[in-house]
């Protein structure tokens, strides 16, 4: 890279007022597992990142992804009443 140039990132190229994309639930859980968290801790932390409260058995990746999809439908006004 030459002096005075900046790297192009998703933050600089995304549309204004559009939230940055989150990593998938699987990626979040795997990252936390590799950092030393237990499965229940990792899945609850991934759930917290998307607005879910912790549960005793931890969230499954499928549950987190389904709830994220419903959040997206609700935010876009496409969730049936």
Helix-strand blueprint:
Elements: H1 10-13, H2 25-34, H3 39-49, H4 61-76
Helix pairs in contact: 2-3
Describe the structure.
Helices cover 51% and strands 0% of the residues. By secondary structure, the chain is mainly α. It has a domain of 55 residues. About 10% of the residues have low confidence.
Query: Overall mean pLDDT score?
Result: 83
Uncertain spans, ≥5 residues at pLDDT below 50? 5-12
The largest sheet is: none
Number of strands: 0
Helix content: 40-55%
What radius of gyration results from the CA coordinates?
A: 16 Å
Oligomer: single chain
Distance between the termini: 52 Å
General shape = globular
Taken as a percent bin, the fraction of beta residues is: under 5%
The run of helices and strands is: HHHH
* Secondary-structure content class: mainly alpha
Number of helices: 4
Keywords:
single chain; 81 residues; mainly alpha; 0% strand
Give the gist of this structure.
By secondary structure, the protein is mainly alpha-helical.
